[in-house]
Design brief:
The chain is mostly helical. The protein is built from 18 helices and 2 strands.
């Protein structure tokens, strides 16, 4: 927290050096990482957390974000500290490289485990599924269009065409799109939610208080789903899972984007990465949660996921659901672009950089599967895969933590002298 101001200075380009190793700027690295996290995790993930767990789930998402700031700092610092080279000799960053470069070749099995599950975790199944649900609930059904396998398949084909155009252009095109789209999306979404909160301003303090009290009471969590002996344990697990889906801290995806940043100072990139959970969960997710809570739709409808957020916007704003649809579309599409980059890096590590493009075809096919499969199946699949990604990432991060602490001390001492 003490160095958040310095992190913003780094992000603004104050310390940029065009001669440093890497592919993209600090700002583009953060927006590429954010374009995959600021998306359906913020709109659908929060709504799912509240519809299943009640207001208290949001508190445990906050906890996951605060802890996530430190995991993002450590993993992204390691991504620069132990950059490796792919089979083409190009510098790369990410868990698979800091595992092999930092821990040595005998730990390669962890890097392989991460890469295999990373390819599955990078599939855009939840984003596509929720975008399809938003199109159905907000546009098609209200206009009398019958939703069927055929209509879902048409949505999938349109997304396949849009995604193919961007992802087959590589990282530069992805980061260019992301750096333009993400800030604009966040501003639009922020303004819309602030208007809703302005309308229901007298309700905001009550619900902020309820988020905290319900986090420990778990009054709204279904009693038939206990964990660790009780409903409170289940609520904590639920909030942490949705927090991980929202900000991806500890999973190892963001270090792949931050590992491509042009810098020779690992700590700087760690500080920039740390901003991710702040923007993503502490700000954007909290706004979504409050919009759902103050409008009361979480108690009056049986909707979940993006449909619940759409109900809140429709109730509070004229044409609110259509304005949300614009945000949902751009959030989802920007996420589609970033995730493919993560998957190609994983395949590149496993079978060579010259074959990494094959992942894109697998990725594009998964869009069709995601648009035609139930939401519960997709979210359960992603929860499971994320656990297997976090396992090797966090083992390596804990083992290499002393290296990050040492690099941090040197950097902050130097910063004080300057």
């Amino acid at each position: 927290f003490r160095y958040l101001g310095h992190a913003v200075s780094v992000l603004r380009g104050k310390y940029d050096n065009p001669n440093d190793a890497g592919e993209i700027s600090h700002f583009k690295a953060l927006t590429t990482a954010l374009s995959s996290t600021i998306g359906m995790g913020n709109i659908a993930g929060v709504a799912l957390a509240i519809s299943v767990g009640g207001p208290g789930a949001m508190f445990w998402m906050w906890v996951s974000a605060i802890v996530g700031m430190s995991t993002k700092y450590f993993t992204s610092t390691l991504a620069i500290l132990y950059r490796g080279k792919d089979s083409n000799g190009e510098i790369q960053g990410g868990p698979m490289y800091f595992i092999t470069e930092g821990l040595g070749k005998h730990w390669k099995f962890l890097a392989v485990l991460f890469s295999v599950f990373g390819m599955l975790g990078a599939l855009p199944v939840v984003n596509v599924n929720q975008l399809k649900q938003a199109i159905n609930d907000i546009i098609l059904i209200p206009n009398g269009v019958e939703v069927s396998f055929g209509s879902n398949f048409i949505i999938a084909i349109v997304l396949v065409i849009v995604t193919s155009f961007v992802i087959l252009g590589g990282l530069q095109r992805i980061s260019n799109w992301a750096s333009k789209m993400v800030p604009a999306m966040v501003v639009l979404y922020f303004v819309l939610v602030m208007v809703i909160l302005g309308i229901y301003i007298e309700e905001v303090p009550r619900y902020l208080s309820l988020i905290v009290t319900d986090a420990f009471a778990a009054d709204y969590f279904p009693e038939d789903k206990p964990f660790l002996g009780g409903v409170l344990g289940a609520l904590i697990l639920h909030g942490i899972k949705r927090g991980a889906f929202s900000n991806e801290a500890g999973l190892g995806t963001a270090p792949m984007a931050h590992g491509a940043a042009k810098t020779d100072e690992p700590v700087r990139e760690g500080l920039v990465a740390m901003l991710g959970p702040v923007i993503d969960t502490l700000i954007v997710c909290t706004l979504t949660a409050l919009a759902i809570l103050v409008t009361g739709v979480w108690e009056t409808t049986s909707d979940n996921g993006v449909s619940l957020t759409a109900s809140a916007f429709e109730l509070a704003l004229p044409y609110g659901q259509y304005l949300l649809m614009i945000c949902v579309f751009f959030f989802s599409v920007s996420s589609l672009f970033s995730y493919s980059y993560y998957g190609t890096k994983c395949l590149s590590f496993l079978i060579g950089a010259d074959k990494k493009h094959y992942y894109n075809y697998f990725y594009i096919l998964s869009i069709i599967l995601a648009a035609t499969t139930p939401f519960e199946a997709m979210i359960n699949f992603i929860d499971g895969v994320f656990a297997f990604m976090a396992f090797p990432t966090m083992i390596a991060t804990i083992l290499l933590a002393p290296k990050v602490i040492s690099a941090s001390k040197i950097y902050f001492e130097k910063l004080k002298k300057d």
